[in-house]
Design brief:
about 475 residues; alpha/beta; Rossmann fold; 2 domains; nine-stranded mixed sheet; six-stranded parallel sheet; 17 helices; about 35% helix; GS/SS; glycogen biosynthesis; Glycogen synthase
Amino acid sequence: MKIFHISAECYPIAKVGGLADVVGALPKYQNNLGATSSVIMPYYDNAFTQKNNFKSIYESKLDFNGHKIGYNILKTKAAVLDFEVYFVDIPNLLHKNYVYSADDTDRFLAFQIATLDWILSFKDLPDIIHCHDHHTGLIPFMCQESFKYKSLNTIPVITTIHNAQYQGWFGYDKLHLIPEFESTKTGLLDWDHCINPLAAAIKCAWRVTTVSPSYMDELKQEANGLQDLLQHESNKCIGILNGIDTAVWNPETDHYLDHKYNIKTLEAGKLANKLALCKTFNLDESKPLITFIGRLVHEKGADVFPLAIKKALEDENCSVLVLGSGHDEAEQALLQLKENNTGLYNVFIGYDEKLSHNIYAGADFLLMPSRVEPCGLNQLYALRYGTIPVVRSIGGLKDTIVDIDKNEGFGISHKEVTVAQIYKAITRSVDLYNKTTIFKSIRKHIMTIDHSWDVSAKAYINLYQSLKK
């Protein structure tokens, strides 16, 4: 089975969020099952492309906005990942040092058209086209309705929604950029009086998946305006829980860690990493270390949790370390906490991949008070490293973390994103830390929980096969 994943992101090539982690792992695990799974993505001007050498395997011109634009399909000269990645190089549009920006409509529409134009040239067409998020949301429509791509309309097209908050809206002034189709089909593009690529994908894809079962259920109730559409199309919607790449996220082999460990050396390994973190960030290593890693935005609770952290620090019963960036207000609130909490608190504004791995390894608890969390990968990384997640029970967090008050529970959860509930969750974490025997038993247990991509990759293969019958 020949599968193409089409995406704006793929780890470690270009990463903004969890989309990259999924697209950077799922193809590998599908290939382990005997498929031929590859990725098609834009060619950006970033660290990955600057340090690798590429060769052109296809060259053509793109009809776009009244112009003929040259483009190439590139591959790395040497094998870099465990699956093939094809790069769509449109120099004037895609060769940027960023992934997302204000010019995304033209950039990603050109990317999608070039991708389909290239696929048209194939002697042997792919068995499955798997699109990810709104950046590739017009591919299901174009395969189904654009005249030039009619020969592709027998290929099953899957759309996976990683985050429904972002839908790629644009106005009808750009309708002419989409390859020609019957004007009576314009309604397939429309949602709330504009062109909505994610809505078009939901309407036209053969199947629509999300990254956890609970997130799919939640989207049918609230999806930034698309909930009614998802309810209407519910017969083709399914939630498949993401996995993690256990080769990358493995404390025993993690090249980012100076102090590697496994389940047998858990206590010594966690302590060594915690001591190193606390020394670097001037934190009290004798206290439970509570951490946050992620974007400082509303959907992650970043407008609320700084106040909860401030309240917890007043108790002086824990140390807190935050890694993230986002809204200025959240960044400033977190920076201000440094003023009166020396030795108990620190923050790193920005993102550092090595530091994130070291935090998973050295932390006692990981805080995730999300308003929206389609699947969440951070809590799965935390489990793998013996760090106990403290989460809001929503989306994938609800599917993967069982509260310690429940039978066989191993995490701490809360229902609402409020200062009071986040603070209470933090105090429950401190109480658990002080119950040394139970605490050690739980973090040993969570390292054994299997959230690899094996199960999820098989679920996707089964879905594909059901569409080929």
